[in-house]
Amino acid sequence: MAAATTSRAAQGMGAKDEKLVFETTEGIEPIFSFDQMGLKDDLLRGTYNYGFEKSSTIQQRAVVPIINGRDVIAQARSGIGKTSMIALTVCQVVDTASREVQALILSPTRKLASQTEKVIRTIGDFTNIQAHACIEGKSVGKDIRKLENRVHVVSGTPGRVDLEEAKTQENAKLQCALQDIQLQFKETKELLAKEREAAKKAAEVVPIIQEVSVVDPVMLEKLTNENEKLKALVSSLEKKIDETEKKFEETNKISEERIKNSLVEDCYAQHVTAEGTALVQQVEDAVSNYVNFVVVLLHPIL
Ligand SMILES: Nc1ncnc2c1ncn2[C@@H]1O[C@H](COP(=O)(O)OP(=O)(O)OP(=O)(O)O)[C@@H](O)[C@H]1O
Fold it and tell me: Is 52 in the pocket of ligand 1 (CB under 6 A)?
């Protein structure tokens, strides 16, 4: 059950946070100070060093549940600290003593994927975290070499990460997967076509997300924009799932595992590019059979 709370004055990034009203899952209490979030000392040092003094409203509500392994849907408008929240949580959950990929972050644009990687490296400066941005337009060879040298975090755009993940999958021990979804951005339609193509290709090789589920999600703001367009998107997704399942069953040439993977890829492609917030919830439901690691869905209210 969601409970509406108003953020307290001067408890975050400043005046722009003060008037925000949050609808938050019952039992989720905002934690105003980074000190009280149980963050590693080195991470706290990096956070303060970066110039953050107090957590932003979304950080107050999302960081601790994510760190505790809870699936989270977080919505906040641009500039409220979502990217930094991803960086904080990833730096906290990654075990830097191990050299395996433990966090995968998908962003809809190259700029955002690079930005996320930079913030992780800056906030995590004292933690020895190794992050790498896998984005189109950069050398695939360099990406592969980086991944072979074992990085902890991959931040990328969907097409490129599919490829890299396919090649390095045995190295991946995922603790969390995060998607930063920018809805209603200009290239939505082009991207939709492109991502779906990339997802299809990846499903032929090896999927990026093998098992995804959302259990007991923490709702950080009310999902809005439930409209006909969204319903149409959701129903097209469901139809696609049915068709895929049927096709695979009929041909019987493909394993049960591959069916799951293909479905998740499809959900994922629609999910990243959909033009509305309520779809996130629907996509979660669609992939809810595949439990393995934490799923965090982020999207701004524009
Ligand atoms: N707790 C904080 N204290 C001070 N500054 C912060 C804090 N969190 C984030 N910021 C700063 O606020 C700006 C926006 O943060 P961030 O990019 O994380 O927000 P966002 O919600 O992801 O924005 P967008 O949707 O535009 O990507 C950045 O300059 C970031 O460094």
Answer: yes
Q: Is 264 helix (H, G, I), strand (E, B) or coil?
A: helix
Number of domains in the chain: 1
Taking the centre of ligand 1 as the mean of its atom positions, its distance from the CA of residue 81, in whole angstroms, is 4
Pick the atom of ligand 1 nearest to 85's CA: 18
Using the mean position of ligand 1's atoms as its centre, give its distance from the Cα of residue 13 in Å.
Answer: 8
Task: Decide if the complex's ipTM is over 0.95.
Answer: yes
Domain that includes residue 151, residue range = 2-225+292-299
Q: Has residue 277 been placed in a domain?
A: no
| Digit-coded pLDDT (tens) for 92-143 | 988 899 877 778 787 777 888 899 999 999 999 999 999 988 877 676 667 6
Rounding to the nearest 10 degrees, give the CA dihedral for residues 116, 196, 260, 175.
Answer: 0
pTM beyond cutoff 0.90? no
Q: Is the CB of 47 under 6 A from ligand 1?
A: no
> CB under 8 Å to 125, separation ≥6 — which residues?
46, 49
